[in-house]
């Protein structure tokens, strides 16, 4: 049996487009959501908000009286439809209407703080070679050369150093990446780049800035539509989605991680760096968004007193969350004010004063 597939071409306001294939007869809203495409609206495709308007060129099902109630006569005449009411049976072009988030006040804020005080430096050290008669592990030789500092190196970094440490080799010249004058996060033959990423998780948009940790300068910025919007336009809708669906929390968590990694990868491409060049993430957002990021049950926000599981700073290794970065990167979740107010609002208020 041959199953027919059809082409969907999504055309953005700037003229660019994205194509994918799906099965004939599927609902347009659901197939877009399944392919990770932002679909406007706040009812998760249930046909009750009337906000997922798109212009369609191609054959879809006829306009129903129920759908007609959400559209103006001029919109119907120009080919506007609600994606959640449309079923496609042949190739169609779908014109999307959302705009550019780069003008948002938070992006402007990132530009204003483009002179952060750096707390990272490279230090040069020399360690004795490995003696055949009285061998001393490389770890101890490095620690001796860095009195008072702590080593926090990844297994990948230790493997790199292992290739340099051979019996009879003279003293090794190494460079150490030191954070806050106390923590050594990398040791290598030569100085490398060191970056951090600031993430602001909004309910409609995700903002990210790539910061050079040695100079304190912002190298690149990006803004992405928060794809959780397809499951609810606001955080209350998303909390309800988690409560109403057994896999709701898992789904919203993974959508957000995918969203964040798309932003991270864009920053990496723009600055021409690798994941291993990223050492730190500082994350702010409203408390519900932070709970969804960590995959923590947000049910406490559904009823009074509207309180989550945590409010103070949390720290994670990058791989616990699945961010695209080096093995030794750390994710810092900044403290929240409480209720539905996160550190992002505190920062914006302080900047406005």
Widest β-sheet, arrangement of strands: 14-13-12-15-17-16
Number of domains: 3
Question: Residue ranges: pLDDT <50 for 5 or more in a row?
Answer: 99-109, 345-353
Averaging pLDDT over every residue, what do you get? 83
List descriptors:
disordered C terminus, Ubiquitin-like (UB roll), 17 strands, alpha+beta, about 350 residues, five-stranded mixed beta sheet, Nucleotidyltransferase, domain 5, 11 helices
Describe this structure in words.
α7 packs across α8. A hairpin with a 5-residue loop joins β1 (5-11) and β2. The protein starts with a strand and ends with a helix. It is elongated and about 90 Å long. By secondary structure, the protein is an alpha+beta fold. The longest helix has 24 residues, at 248-271. The protein folds into 3 domains: 5-95, Beta-grasp domain (Ubiquitin-like (UB roll), Roll); 102-117 and 193-352, Domain of unknown function (DUF4445) (Nucleotidyltransferase, domain 5), CATH 3.30.420.480; 120-188, no CATH class. The strands form 4 sheets. A 6-stranded mixed beta sheet has the order 14-13-12-15-17-16, with helices on both faces. The chain has a 5-stranded mixed beta sheet with strand order 2-1-7-4-5. The protein has a 4-stranded mixed beta sheet with strand order 8-10-11-9. The protein has helices spanning 28-34, 65-68, 73-77, 105-112, 138-145, 155-162, 235-244, 248-271, 287-294, 318-321, 343-352, and strands at residues 5-11, 17-23, 26-27, 53-57, 80-82, 87-88, 92-95, 120-127, 150-151, 172-179, 183-188, 195-201, 205-212, 218-225, 278-285, 314-317, 330-333.
């Amino acid at each position: 049996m041959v199953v027919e597939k059809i082409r969907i071409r999504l055309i953005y306001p700037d003229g660019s487009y994205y194509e994918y294939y799906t099965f004939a007869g599927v609902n347009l809203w659901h197939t877009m959501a399944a392919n990770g495409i932002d679909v406007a609206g706040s009812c998760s495709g249930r046909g009750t908000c009337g906000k997922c308007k798109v212009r369609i060129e191609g054959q879809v099902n006829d306009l129903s009286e129920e759908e007609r109630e959400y559209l103006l006569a001029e919109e119907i005449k120009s080919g506007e439809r609600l994606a959640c009411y449309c079923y496609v049976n042949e190739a169609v072009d779908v014109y999307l209407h959302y705009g550019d988030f780069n003008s948002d006040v938070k992006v402007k804020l990132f530009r204003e703080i483009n002179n952060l005080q750096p707390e990272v430096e490279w230090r040069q050290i020399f360690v004795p070679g490995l003696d055949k008669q009285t061998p001393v592990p490389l770890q101890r030789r490095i620690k001796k050369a860095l009195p008072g500092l702590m080593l926090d190196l990844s297994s990948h970094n230790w493997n790199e150093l292992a290739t340099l440490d051979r019996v009879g080799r003279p003293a090794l010249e190494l460079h150490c990446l030191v954070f806050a004058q106390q923590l050594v996060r990398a040791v290598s033959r030569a100085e490398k780049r060191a970056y951090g990423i600031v993430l602001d998780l909004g309910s409609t948009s995700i903002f990210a800035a790539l910061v050079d940790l040695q100079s304190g300068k912002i190298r690149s910025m990006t803004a992405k539509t928060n794809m959780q919007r397809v499951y609810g336009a606001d955080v209350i809708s998303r909390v309800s989605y988690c409560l109403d669906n057994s896999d709701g929390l898992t789904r919203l968590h993974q959508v957000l991680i995918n969203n964040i990694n798309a932003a991270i990868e864009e920053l990496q491409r723009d600055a021409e760096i690798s994941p291993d060049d990223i050492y730190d993430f500082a994350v702010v957002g409203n408390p519900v968004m932070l709970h969804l990021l960590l995959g923590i049950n947000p049910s406490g926000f559904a009823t009074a007193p509207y309180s989550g599981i945590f409010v103070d700073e949390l720290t994670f290794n990058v791989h616990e969350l699945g961010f695209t970065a080096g093995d030794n990167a750390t994710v810092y979740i900044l403290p929240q004010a409480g209720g539905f107010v996160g550190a992002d609002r505190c920062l914006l208020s302080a900047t406005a004063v």
